[in-house]
Amino acid sequence: MIQDKGPWKKYIGKTEKNHRKIFGVDMVMLAEKYGTPLYILFDDIIRENYNKYQESLEIEYKNHLICYAVKANTSYYVLNLLAKLGAGVDVSSEYELELALNAGIPAEKIRANGNCKSDAYLEECIKKGIVISVDPEEELKIINTIAQESGISAKINLRLSGFPVKHITSRAISTSSDWSKFGIDIKRANSVFQKVLDLDMLVPNGLMVHLGSQITDINAYYIVLDNLIHLSKEAQKIGFDINEIDLGGGLGIPYFDEKDWDQIKRKIKNTRNENYSWANEFIGYEYNSELNDLEWIGEELSIEYTPDIFIQKLLNENFSENKTFREKLEEIGSPRFVIEPGRSIVGNAGVTIAKICHVSKTPRGENIIHVDIGVNSHTFGTAVPEQLHKIEIANYIEEGEHFETFVAGNLCFTGDLLCRIKNKLIRKPFRGDYLLFYDTGAYSDFFSSNANSFPRTAKAVVSKDGSHRLMVRREKMSEIFNREVEWDLDNRKD
Ligand SMILES: Cc1ncc(COP(=O)(O)O)c(C=O)c1O
């Protein structure tokens, strides 16, 4: 689908050779200079997204902290950029923590998450005074013991889950309802508050929740917030301090405009007639016996809010008892309001470019194009379960006969489809063409690996002034195999 609308419209153009350019930079030139596959990040879009959060919070609620979720795009360059803008971060391992500290994020602006934290990670947080989101409940005693051994008290938020929300996004990225590996059940919250107060090395700091990712319905936030405010009051009654409410991340981005997305969902529902999805699966749908129909239970890939609008609405709209969230925060002493956005900071700040190797047909007769990047380097299963992004041929943008196609990666397994739903190109592609995937700045390399011994993908960064440089190198042969002790001894050349 050509990018003639949506957020990209203002950044894109064409070169004289009919190549896609973004911020004046020829994407094909970048692919040829740095090789494919290639992630391309636009640092000014990251800045713009962060500033939308920052400027609206500055107006709406002064006592706030924006902690970028490092996992969304784990990159020293991105962390450095955000550190200069004054951001904090959410980290989920000692490795992310180390990178964030190296990039200049101050310890007091770091929130430590993770449902399986190592002793070393916890110890480092305690020593640096970093607020730990306790998850699960069993972690309380472990943190207390490590704090005793270190002789330093641990600042903790309780991460909660089990909220009455359903189908707010797809299952794999839903983290706050009654089936979640994360968090402490809200039904246990009152006894856990007391448990914290009984453990002498724990300093209560607040409550935390992360709803899930690609959340598009603001009502889900209201339901969770209502519960959080209620629980905060309960906590305060027994002396558990609420210095902050950490609402996690989760705000979605528009992968499609509403009309296109509705049409895509309709086609999936009708896939038995239209052969629209992989193996004709009703991807994202579930049969609902009450409705006697298929019900959409996946994430929505279209959203009406930008970060600034989201913040304005979240704080200013009445959500229960005729009160706004801001008023409810005031009732519990105006604690710091922490958010941990990832996708909404970097998601629409990146594209991926790959090279087309073959244009063929499945045995069933469907068009399928094969590209030189695998699903492991393209949001596999987590971020956009349908693997659906807007795509276009980047090297010769000339409208011809439209071409509906599946996109397969280069890995040796059938699930390696970069798009399990048919996607549309404005002309037939050929071997050697470049394929551009839009909005791939978040979670593209979350599951990145050396499957089939391919090197992990390089990242380049492009700025508004048209400058560009390599940000992350592609792995060399020696880097792929050097963990093999004998290979290293026998073959290492560099
Ligand atoms: C604890 C926590 N905070 C923040 C985020 C970021 O979420 P998103 O990228 O959807 O904003 C995540 C992502 O899974 C998370 O687990």
In words, what does this structure look like?
With about 500 residues, this protein is α/β, with parallel strands linked by helices. The protein folds into three domains: about 5-35 and about 350-485, Lyase, Ornithine Decarboxylase, Chain A, domain 1 (Beta Barrel); about 45-250 and about 305-340, Alanine racemase (TIM Barrel, Alpha-Beta Barrel); about 260-295, no CATH class. About 30% of the residues lie in helices and about 25% in strands. The protein contains 15 helices and 25 strands. It has helices spanning about 25-35, 45-60, 75-85, 95-100, 120-130, 140-150, 190-200, 220-235, 260-270, 270-275, 305-315, 325-330, 345, 475-480, 485-490; strands at about 10-15, 20, 25, 40, 65-70, 90, 110, 130-135, 155-160, 185, 200-210, 245, 285-290, 295, 320, 325, 335-340, 350-360, 365-370, 390-395, 405-410, 415-425, 435-440, 460, 470. The strands form five sheets. Strands 4, 18, 19, 20, 21, 22, 23, 24 and 25 form a nine-stranded mixed sheet that branches. It has an eight-stranded parallel beta barrel with strand order 5-6-7-8-9-11-12-17, surrounded by six helices. Helix 5 (about 120-130) links the parallel strand 7 (about 110) and strand 8. Helix 2 (about 45-60) packs parallel to helix 11 and helix 5 crosses helix 6 (about 140-150). It is globular, with a radius of gyration of 24 Å. Bound molecules: pyridoxal-5'-phosphate. Pyridoxal-5'-phosphate binds near residues 71, 90, 249 and 341.
